Description:
By secondary structure, the protein is α/β, with parallel strands linked by helices. The protein has helices spanning 64-72, 105-112, 139-146, 158-168, 208-221, 242-250, 278-282, and strands at residues 7-10, 22-28, 32-39, 44-52, 82-87, 92-96, 119-126, 131-138, 153-156, 176-182, 186-193, 196-204, 230-235, 253-256, 264-265. The relative contact order is 0.16.
Amino acid sequence: MLKLDSFQLVDETCSVQNTKNYNLSILINRDGFYFCILDVIKNKYVLSSYYSNPLSFDEQTDFDWIKKIFNKDKFLRNTYNSVKIGFISQKSTIVPSSLFKIENISEYLYFNHEPARYEIIKHNYLRNINAYNIFSIPIEINEIFTNYFTEINYYHQSTPFIECNLLDNKNKLPGKKMYICSYCKFIDILVIDKNNLIFYNSFKYKNSSDFIYFVFNVLEQLKIDPKDTETILSGDILSNSDIYKLLKQYIKNVKFDKLNKNFNYSYTFNEKPLHFFTNLFNLERCV
């Protein structure tokens, strides 16, 4: 499991006086807080930042550490052209549009997950599979952000993960691909064939053995030969990690995800592995 250190990569053209021409994207969980800024006029990402949570998951009682980030970071305390916030958790459920009714939204989510006392249920439309992604966010998170931003679009982290990978493969040749996005305590696994969703699920893991087990269990369930499957990695995986070495040992075609070519990116981002940011940057592409 990789624990990232805090960082901020800023292009020299990025200015706090110009945020009304910028789009802000935030990706957050209890382990850390990512955000990036897109200059809409230049179609260029000009800032990427990450703040690690100083507390361990088990020590947390609230989200005061996020309030401290807002007090500290001058870029967050501004007005933006748009604000999109992704919440990272395993608590989500996908429901086909034909079965979806807004009045039953809590029933859908709590059929598979335990209710929490202080949470708000949200949903995203997944137009590439004509379904709804239902998830929850803590009320305290919503209160923090609404203190700073008047209009917010919320997303589950699986929404850009599913939608953008399906969209990017729409005109590709048929053939199964596995996408793996790693977070601090769990992984999202997506299998697609061209622009068809074959499989999506999320798995908790504690070590590299767990990680590899879940990957190969999915391949076995779907009767996919690891020698013939392209596997694309994103999130907090490094090329020198045990996880990556094990994947390379058993899967022939493993590579790190690349950033979308429809945008420009500051050269400062090259200081960090670019696949760290894939899901964060893809929030911009979500409707």
